[in-house]
Each structure stands twice: as structure tokens, then as C-alpha cells.
Amino acid sequence: MVSADNLNLDVLELIFAYISAPDLTSVSLVSRSFLAGAVPTLYRTIVYRLREAKAYGSIMSPFVVLLTHKGLLKHVRTIDIQAVPKTNHPKIRIQPHSIFMRDCRKAIELCPSLHTFRCTEANVFPAFLKALQDKPNLQSIRIHGNLTTKQTDLLMNMTSLSEVMLEYSSWNFVSALPRWIQSLQNTLTTLVLYRMDDLKENTLEAVLKELPELSGLHVVHCPHVDHVAVLGLLVHTPELESLSITTLEKSRCLANPLPDLPFLRHLAVDARYHMSPSPTPTILVTLLEHLKIAAPQISSFTIKLSERKITIVPSFINRLIEVYGVYLKKLAFLDCSLENDSIKKICKECPQLERLAISIPIREAYSFGDLLISAKHLHTLVDVDTHTQHGVRPVLNFEAAQSLMQKVPSLRTLVSDRRVWVTELDEYMEPTPRLERRLQLRPRASWFLPPNGPS
Prior knowledge:
Mean pLDDT: 88
Number of helices: 15
Strand content: 15-25%
Largest sheet: 16 strands, mixed
Strand order of the largest sheet: 1-2-3-4-5-6-7-8-9-10-11-12-13-14-15-16
Distance between the termini: 41 Å
Shape: globular
Low-confidence stretches: none
Oligomer: single chain
Number of strands: 16
Radius of gyration: 24 Å
């Protein structure tokens, strides 16, 4: 007789890969065979957040666990350090806790199969540079790039990366960027440059000339490189599949025509909106006019405004639908709102729409569902919290979620207030929501990347 304990360890690992981390922790306590099957998934990704950093000293660091049980190191593929514990002494300047940094550095150095490393805490990444040397499996990094010249030289020893995400980089690192990218030209497929105040157009051009096979380019919130500069340089990257740009209110006119981008499928726009009246709506419509020939089949579109109380004008929505309506599968409207008629038109005239991220008016959730009735293939709806009103924000309850799922029969996943509702059929074969899980708190610095999950 076959029991769960008798299953092959490889089979258990495949099964447990589909279980969420909190549930997997409980599963690992069932038996020794379950523990052995769960360990590779439990330690595949190590995430250290602000919550853990504040509790340092009262709970054991995951890096201490790895050093104590060195057999676990071989399972680690991703390390994501979002915060570090700080010293708490009245006579010592606040700085990263030395013992934590030592343990973390040793653990990183001993991970033989590290694939992804992220460290977004300011002025922390340099401490791990030497530990990251000689990592042949390292493919992806996301770092706070405030580095000295010597630290930059160490980083340039990494020459086999496929994904590089750089944030808040120092001027000396920016000046060395073209030389580093040249050594990555055979492997790099995705490049993210975020909030880099010293990035200039000539530096970006020198970088892109080395990357003719780049598939993902995201230049966001870099004040000296607007959408006009980026689009003009795309002649060097004809194989782009995803693109993120920032539109500024004082930009030059777009060149006509734009370089051909036949493979572009995802576009994210960070729209600056400060002046009154603002030229941004006209800039956005003009952008679509230029892109409709250069990139005719965009299927994923994300826009984020800098002022959360702004409503996107219907003229832009109308033009977006006219140009890309038949192709659009994923839409996201962040830190902004849409008129009801615009939402209704999107659902009616985007026949392939599968995922929509938008601010859901919780108090009017029942009538909001009427706007979505025409979306026959919508399977994921994400509520984007804009916090435009003071006071306690109402939470999407079971009855409201059920109403939305009954009005949109194709809806399978509903995300609101970090809660994930999924559709099930009740005893009368009617769709009913089930609260599946609660998403982890994560920074939204990468909102512009192509959406892959429910968050």
C-alpha cells in the first residue's frame, strides 16, 4: 500500500513547490519524510524584511540557521535583503549591526548555487561584494548602487549576469556603467535603471549600443533621461519585449518615426503630473500615436501617475483602446482613477483582457461589478489601494467579492487589501469566493515590470 511517507523524495519536492510558505512550514512538521521534501522549497528563497530586522536578537536570523546547518546552503537560490538590523546604543552612531552583517556575509559566501541576490537597503550592499565574487550561477542582482570606485571595480568582476537592476547609483558607478555592460553583452537580457540622478542620455546610449539583443529595458524616474531620450535610443535594441519610461512635462518633441519594435509586448509609463494645467494628457496621446506603428502589438500596459487624486482623461483611454484594444490582455492603472465610462469601455472593447489592476471603490463594489460585465475573459482583478481619502478604508468583504464573481463569471482571482480570493463552485454550481491567502508586504519599487502574479 502506497502512503504519503512512501512517496519518492523528488515527487514530494514537486508537490511542495505549489504550497505557500506558511502552509509548507506546517507540512514540514508532519513527518521526517515531509520535512526532507519541504526543506529544498523552504530554503530556496531567503527574504529578510524590516519585521525581522526589528526583531533581531529575539529571533534567530536565517543566516545563522544556514551557518549552523551548512547542509541547507546548497538549497538557497535567492537572497533578498530588504532591511538590516541597526545598532541601538546611545554612544554609537547608528549603523548596520556588525554581527548580523558578519553572519550574512559568511552565509552568502558559502551558498554554492546562488542565482538571485537583492539588496535594496542603502549603503549595505558594498559589505557583500567580496562574498559575491566567484558565483558562477549568479544570474540576477538588484542593488542600491551607491558605490565607490573600488567597490565598482569589484562589481565589474560579475560578467555572467542576465538581469541587472540598479537603484540610486552614485556618479562614479554611472560613469563606469558602459564598461561593465560591455562585459555583459553576451548574457544580459534585462536592464533596470531606477532613480539614477546622474544618468545622462550619452551614458545610456553607450550602454544600449552594447546590448543589441536586450529584451527588457526599464529606465524609470531618472530626471535627465525622459521618454523622448529613451525612445530615440531604441534603434540599438530592436528585440525589446518590455519597456518602461518616464514622461516629463517639459520634454522635447518625439522624433518621427520611432525605431521599429516588432517584439514589444509590455509598456509601462511613469507619468509626471505637477503643472496646472498639465501637458501630460497630450504627451501620453502623442506617445501612443508614435508607438502604434513602431510597436503594433502591445498586450500589457501599465501607467502610474505622481498625483493619486488625478483621473485619467477619457481621450487617452479612447486612444489606447483604438490603438491596442484588440491586443490588450493586461492593464494596470496605479495611483490614479478612471471614469466609470472609461472602465466600461475597456471591458467592452478589449476582448482579450485577462488581468485588470485598478482602484476598486469598496463602498460601491456592487455597482462597480456592472462595469465589468462585458469582460468575458477577465480572470484576475487586482484592487490598487490609492489612499485618496482620510479615515479607515473599508475592506472588500465576502458578499462584495461574491457579487463581483457572479457578475464576471470568468473571474478566478480577486486581490484586495493583500487578500487573495479565489473562485469555487458551491453546491448549486454558483461561483462563490474563498479566501485563499494573505500576500506578504513588499515594496512596490518594481511596479513597472511585466506582471506575472496576483500581487
